[in-house]
Structure formats: structure tokens, C-alpha cells
Amino acid sequence: MNNKLTILSVAAALIISSCNDSKQTKTDTVQVTTSENYMGKSISHKYDSMIDSLISQMTLEEKSGMLHGTSMFTTAGIERLGVPELKMADGSLGVREEISRYSWAPAGLDNDFATYYPAGAGLSATWNPQLAYTFGNSVGEESRARDKDVILSPAINIIRTPLGGRTYEYLTEDPFLNKKLAVPFIVGIQNNDVAACVKHYAANNQETNRDFVDVQIDERALREIYLPVFEAAVKEAKAYSIMGAYNKFRGEYLCENNHMLNEVLKGEWGFEGVVISDWAAVHTSVNSLNSGLDIEMGTPKPFNEFFLADPLIDSVKAGKISEAEIDKHVKRIMQLMYTLKSMGGEARVKGSINTEAHFKDAYDIASESVVLLKNDKNLLPIKASEITSVAVIGANATKKNALGGFGAGVKTKREVTPLEGLQNRLPESVKINYAEGYQERYAPKKESKFGDVTQERAETIDELDSKLVEDALMAAKNSDMTIVFAGSNRDYETEASDREDLELPFGQGALIEKILAVNPNTIVVMIAGAPFDINTIKEKSSALVWSWFNGSEGGNALADVLLGNVNPSGKLPWTMPKNLMDSPAHATNSFPGDQTVSYAEGLLVGYRWFDTKNVEPLYPFGYGLSYTTFDIKNARLDKEGSYSENETIYVSVDVINTGSVDGKEVVQLYSTKKESKVERAAQELKGFEKVFVKKGQTATVTIALPVKELAYYDVGLKKWVVESGTYNFRIGNSSRDMKAEVSVPIN
Ligand code: BGC
Q1: Which parts of 340-394 fold into alpha helices (H)?
Q2: Which residues are known catalytic residues?
Q3: How confident is the model at residue 445 (pLDDT cuts 50, 70, 90)?
Q4: For ligand 1, atom 2, which residue shows the shortest CA distance?
Q5: Which of 23, 155, 509, 663 could cross-link to 628 by cystine, CB 3.0-4.6 Å?
């Protein structure tokens, strides 16, 4: 069976013409990536009558077993009826290693290695939906090779604060970019007969107090910022499962929130899949089931004590809930099983794992994710033929991130570090002088209780070791150039706690300043998943690169960018603030709350705040340089006159590669509506397209924008409304570098 996606795309002409000789115009075709390109397949109803008949033969105990974890990552099967267990695994970075059946201890197997894929922030920095599909499809194949039914991925909560412990794992601060990446990702996973479990639904934007905090968001911000990715996951990608979050929303825990589960998710959006709780996020039996939860997972108490285990059985016997209600949930789970072909006897995708093809997928994502922040003296790309030595400094040159911190990682046979990447890619004529420079050190941490879902943070030790500094300075002085690998890692940025500030830990800031003072030919490479305070580094360095927890091939991809084998094309998926207090959740003093957190910034999340309030960021959303330069001009529409609600606007621009190497640019379209009857952010991303343009050539890029994307959520009417009037579309290559503009009348 052809397991790849059939792209039902709108094809637009990409006219590539030589700037110098217009007669040599040649016409090529690219596909404009609209959401329609990635439609998932719905839950199958082919076996519904068979399912009803099976349910009629089940005992209450058997049904209850299907509704809750009976091991760390499975629910019960019913052998006598041929119903298998539902097998799950974490998957944000790739398929997690097997853990023990009844505890969090690693199972200690030797056949549970997997490809380590770039973390979410790395994927989103590619701004490339096709790579999101590649990622999903690749991890879907690995999930099947490990015999999983549900992969607990993607993690797609909006990045509200730069301090978020899971910022590295999530995608972005922008709802449009979020859904444009999440949808192909989910479709890619599910094309392999495995369910994506989209998490964490919803409003789970902080780790602090995540197990009880009550999140308050006004309805417009909820609909326009926090929910679009989930809505698209359901309506477009047809996600087969969704994970209920730990926290409360408007007073109710998300795993027993009738409004969010029954009314919005299953009612309004028509979700036909299965709602799975986050691990130990359930608090009641009858109420959670009645409110729309389907499966309770978790730890650490005995599995028969789960709310949907013995207590549920008792509740049925006591007449507090009907067996018909239980049947409804069991039916959904069985429909999922037949859709995934774990029942029904149809041939199922077998999958593959740790293949060179998958390492290549990880490489492709990593190589498009690296963001060039600064290159004032053209130190980059490194001209290897012109140097004989390079100092490589920093613990992050050798740090591995596949495992580490709280939560799921990947046990992998391959994680190429930045140092190894350089060793692999530099010619032998260049000597590498490595010095550690700083070390990752922590003060002893208070022991957490087993099963805690939030954690105390360990204090970092920020004093530098003078001998290590001396060695590093020596290496820097005695080398033609220096590369410092700094930033953080997955022990420092981790699930279950948020950071306290944006400071670079372990004394790195001071070290970098010393190195820049002795060798101005220094490139600083930050490896991190979330913003840090790099004001001084930005000011004092002339070459600054941002990379991520970037998967099995991260080091090779990074070396290829540094050496110019790959022209950087990554763009920041979030705003890098100058100061933490400039960020909206902090400027409004509404993070992290205590029992309750009220999102006081409302709609103005991320760049929407910075742009509306005229706050200068350190680096803006969508920013990233290239080794070439691009011009974007000639914005035009596909027709004259106004557009109506059901139309699609085709906006074309010419993208000219004005530099001396081939490269990819992300054309970004932001919409502004000046006169509006409702509050609006200064601008909002409404389209983007990554395009490859050869040096000296021009590409015409057409962005398809359904008018409906311009709608706001009318709280009174409870629906999306497209306001008529004039919209300005500004098109550029960062949210703060606009090159062309066109105004669009909507009637
Ligand atoms: C995390 C989930 C994860 C689950 C199972 C929870 O702590 O929030 O993202 O899937 O654990 O490991």
C-alpha cells in the first residue's frame, strides 16, 4: 500500500527567470501549501455493528479495563473477544524507550532504540510544513516498528512565556504557524495506522502548578490563540486521539471539563477519536466520564484504584452512572482500534526504525532549522580552506540531549554532537582545539516525591572553573578562529518546572565575553529550545547562530550550516525579548499565578504584544538571516475588486535572490486591519511559504489565503466573523522586515 500522502494541492506557477536575461525565462511548478494539502482520514465506521455486538458480550469489568491504564502505557485487552491492549508511547522527540510495565524504570531492553528527531522548536524554526509531514510520517513508521497504537505526540501548546519548561518541545507562539505545522505532522503519523495523541488540550501553557492551576482566558483569546491548533488537528488532520491536560480551565479540570470536551471538542468540532488523560490528571470517576474523557492513564497508584477502574464499577453498581454511558466510550475506543487495524484483520503498516532514511529525515529537519542571527563580518560560512585551526569551546559541543530532564526522551544509537559534526565535516588540514570552558553544574536538589508532576528546580552553579577558562582562552588565542557552543540543554529546560529567568546558566555569559576579547574571530552558537538573555552576546559578537535540541543528526546539520554546505533558512518561531518583563505574560504580571492564572494580555501573545505596544524585541518572530540576500517585491492579487467570505485570495510576490549563493527564504504574510470594530493586534501571520531561489534569479511565490482566515471570533454570536473593509497585507521575511504591501478589499 502506498503509505505516502496524496497531495491535493493547489498548484501555482513558479516562474523562475534569470535577472540578467529575461529571454531565458523558464517556467516551473510548485505546490502552494494550503491546509487542504494535508487532510487526514476520518475514524472508520465500517465495523460499527460488529463493535456493538462485541460490546454486548463484554462484562462491566472488561469494559472498565479498556477505559484505564492497566500498565504504565497500555489499557486492558479482552482476550476471549479478540480485543487487544491499546499500546501507547511518548513521542515528542521520537519513540520513547520502553519503560517497565508497572513502574517508570527503564525496561532495560536492547531492541528499543529509535531515531531522535529535532525537538518541536527546531521543527517550527524550519517554517516548512512538508518537513512537519516528513517528521510525522517518519516517527509514525518508527511507532509501528515498535508495535505502538498511539504515539503521544505532537505537543503543541502555545508558547505564552519564554520561561516555559516545555518551550523547547512545543512549536510556537503563533496560532497560524502552529496549525500549519501540526496538521501535516498528525497526518504523517496517522498515515501509518498509528494514532497521534495531540497534547495537551488545552490552555496548558506553564509547568508551574500545572497539576492544579485554574487558567482563565477570555473567550476571544481562547478561540483565536489557544484553540486553533486543536481545532485544525480535529477538523483537518482528523486526529484520532487528544490528551486532556493536567490543569483546570475556568474552574474545571481539563479531563473532566464538560464544556471543553463534550461541547467544544466532541460537539462543535465533531471529534470522533478518543480523549486520553495526561498521566494522573483525572480526579473523579462519574464526572470525568460524563464530561467526555474516554481513557484514564497515569501513575503511581495501583491500577485497579484508578478512577475509571474499581471506583467506576462501584458507581455503575450504585446507579450513579449508566452502563450505556460506559458503552459509548468503549465504542469510541473500538472504532479507533478498527481504524488503526489493530482489529479487523486488515493488513497494517509494519513500519521501520533506525533506518538511514529516518536519520536523513532528522537531518533534513535539523538542517533547515538553524537560525543565523548575526553575521556582521562575514565570519560565516567558515572558509575551511583559509584556516588551519579552530578552537571549539563549550560543554554544549559535546552535550547530548536525546535523554535528560524530566519526561520523555529517546534512547538512540546515534546522536552526533556539534564537535563530532565538525570532526566529520572539516577537512583534515584544519586542527580542532577543543576546550570545555564551562561545565553543567547544579547544587544538590531536594528530592521530589514519586509521582509529582511538578518539580523543584535545582540551583545552577554559575562560577567558572579558572583552569577550564584558562584552557579555553589558550585554545582561542592559539587558533585561527573560535566557535563557542553555549546555551542550555534538556536537563535545564525541562518538563515539570519553568525557568526562573532568562539568564544563561553555568557562567557561560562571562566565559563568552572573555573569549570574544581574546579572539574576535569567534562564532557563538547557542543551542537551546527557548529564549535566553543574549543581549551582551549579540552586542559583542559578530557572528551568532541559534540551534536546537536537534536530533540524531543535529551535529552534522549544524556543521553543514557553519561550513556553508547548507545555507541557513531557519526563522525564529517565537519572539526573543530584550528583557523578560517585555514579554506579555510578564509585562502584565500574569505569570505564573497561584491557584489561578488569568491571561491578562488576552489576544496579544508573542509578537502581537510587541508589535501592538511598540516594544522592541531583541530578535523578532520570524527572523533569520541567510548567506545570501533576498528582496521581495511586487505584491499583487489574483483579481481586481473585492473578495467575499468563501473566496481564496492568491497573493503573489517576486522573491529575488540578490546575493551570491543559492538559498531558501520564508516569505511571510501579515495582515493588518486598521479600522475595526473589535480589538486587533497590530498584525497577524496569515500565510507563509518557504521557497528555494537560485542566486541571481527571481521566483514568483503565490500564497493562497482563504478569506475565512481573516475572521475574528465573535463572542456574542459564538462564531467566526469576517469583518468587511480593507485589510493590508504586508509581506516580508520577518515580522519586522516588511518588503511589500498590498491592500485587499473584503465585502
Ligand atoms: C506529560 C505528557 C506525557 C505523559 C506520559 C506527562 O507528564 O505531560 O506529555 O505524554 O507524562 O509520559
Answers
A1: 356-369
A2: 278
A3: confident
A4: 278
A5: 663
